[in-house]
Amino acid sequence: MRILVVEDEVPLADAIARGLRREGMAVDVAYDGETGHEKSTVTRYDVVVLDRDLPGMSGDELCKEILSSGALTRVMMLTASAGLDDRVAGLSLGADDYLAKPFAFPELVARVRALARRATPATPPLLTARDVELDPARRTVRRAGRPIELTRKEFGVLEVLLAAKGSVVSSEELLERVWDENADPFTTTVRVTVMTLRKKLGEPGIIDTVVGSGYRVPTAGVALDGAPQDGTP
To answer: Hey, is 147 helix, strand or coil?
Structure first.
């Protein structure tokens, strides 16, 4: 999932970003409302973690801009104001959730994950293909019952491909969904990650390369070369 943290307290913003990245999320950071607005208009985020009390463009204004764009992005407001009136005001602006500072980081992670699930089409609790099983909540992958250790990026790529339900996912989309803004779009990062992921998953392979388009994990009934498995030409 792709997250944007907009927080003018730099140490706090960086700490939130580091923590969410450790949870396997791709995280961008903005330290003011204007930068947050610019990033939110060029990248589709699942969740924006937004400080309400920003200088310049306030969190309230940015929340309204995100909502008016029609994006599926979910907004979590962060604020030092914990009063009932402040919470009601924040939610009345259209924010999807509201968390007062100081907060427990595990709670922030749980709320972000819950909001991200609402920002994308519903997916089953387990993502499967053949004998491969991925559990997004527990961050585990098994093949034929055997656990497979993946890096955060390998896990993210496999999760996106399985969630696509047989559709082709381009390298550009994988880069956007799994990595953050610091990733170089001209590197072979995606190709190398897919290559190492294939090796760890073993044979028979489940990830198909669609030349000139990207990658896919075919659904049941379609072979890796695109031919139906029932023998139909």
So the answer is: strand
